[in-house]
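Dear colleague,

Thank you for sharing your sequence with our group. We've completed the structure prediction you requested, and as agreed, I am returning the results in plain text so they can be pasted directly into your records. Please verify that the sequence below matches your submission; if there's any discrepancy, let me know and we will rerun it promptly.
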Amino acid sequence: MAKATTPHDLVITARDRRFGRGARMGRWWLNDDPIATAFYNALSVTFPKGEGFFVDSVRRFREGTSPRLTREINAFIKQEVLHTREHVAFNRHVTDQGYDVTRLDRDVDAALALTKGRPPIASLAATTALEHFTVMLAHELIANPRHLAGGEEQARALWLWHAAEEIEHKGVAYDTWLHATRDWPRFRRWWVKSFVMLMTTKHFFVGRTRGMLELLRQDGLTGPRVWARLAWYAFGNPGMARKVAGVWAAYFLPGFHPWKHDDRELIRLAESDYEAAVMPKAVTA
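Please find the predicted structure tokens below.
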């Protein structure tokens, strides 16, 4: 069986889009549902600092990569910078609605601090694991329209745009990891990436759950019934966490590569949707 690699005809393109400028979204912008809105708001709060961490981690290992991987790293950085800009704007909407995200920010800082004082390869391993998380969510977000159905236009367009680009650059961090560990024995490479993924999964779920519960607390929603609704949203319907479980587990398999499943058709699907939402306003500007 041929080893899975990044497609040779892949072109990573930074799409400079802006979303929600001058528009006021509702407090519960996704179906007027506080649970669904908290899910995405809590995730968005993590992106600016998280994506800065991804960029720094990958950039440290850019020297000595092949010309093709160097180009892909540069395109990855451009995409992530734009994602940061747009989620800063989106997060301003969150705080404009009266939410205090101080605790969420502290959780992000604490998670990123776990790699401080460690070799740069540790940050790259964490980035590789977290990029797998983002692409799992991105694939499901586009493939299953129910996740964003009923959401306000500009918010929905933002998440589809972000998801499309996450799919497009999903192999960059992993290919950089393969380059950086090219002299490692196969077992060591597998063990380190697997251990880091387990630790990353723990911190990701704990952090995002705490973030969602904090935002819901500020909405006056607390207690076992709210916890049950949140669990049902994540694992029942629409069940994002349940639906990505198999893809998460694939990370531990020998021969894993993000492009073992070529899902670029989802990029085209997302673009047709968010451009329809954004372009009419751009034309009249």
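Summary note from our side: Residues 162 and 231 are 25 Å apart (CA to CA).

Kind regards,
the structure core
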